[in-house]
């Protein structure tokens, strides 16, 4: 009888769940969850996934999740928050102008910083930032973030083996 190897047993159990966990965390990152799939992208090589595949999966699912958050901000919060901002119409108009002018860069910065993507997506939808500009900003921020994480995962796996 062979001895029980915990590491290989754990890897055998986690490997099929890895891609689904990345997709679920990516989709939820733009809707309600402040934690993205970063931990899974970084540890992907340790559970048998290719880091660049994990980064691509995280990128696509997080972009889709941010569009869901944008839709929530545009549809759900519009009637609720418009009433709150009715007295401060000039503040709301200034925020919309600012977001149209600098929104791409703010969203891109949110993609690489600890600013929660959820709040940025909801605000962009509520303030009517053009959807294409929002999506391009999300892509510009997430692509380098997940790319660097994939490179780090590859080096981490090489170091630990």
Task: Please give a structural write-up.
- This protein has one domain.
- The chain contains eight helices and no strands.
- The chain has helices spanning 6-14, 18-29, 38-42, 51-75, 77-84, 89-112, 117-126, 131-160.
- The model has no long low-confidence stretch (mean pLDDT 81).
Structure keywords:
161 residues; mainly alpha; 8 helices; 76% helix; 0% strand
Helix-strand blueprint:
Blueprint: H1 6-14, H2 18-29, H3 38-42, H4 51-75, H5 77-84, H6 89-112, H7 117-126, H8 131-160
Helix pairs in contact: 2-4, 4-7, 4-8, 6-7, 6-8
User: How many helices?
Assistant: 8
Q: How many domains is the backbone divided into?
A: 1
Unreliably modeled segments: none
- Average residue pLDDT: 81
* Strand residues, percent: under 5%
How many angstroms does the end-to-end distance come to? 26 Å
Please state the overall shape, judged from the principal axes of the Cα atoms: elongated
What is the CA-based Rg, rounded? 19 Å
Alpha-beta content class: mainly alpha
Portion in helices: over 70%
Order of helices and strands: HHHHHHHH
Largest sheet: none
Give the total of beta strands.
0
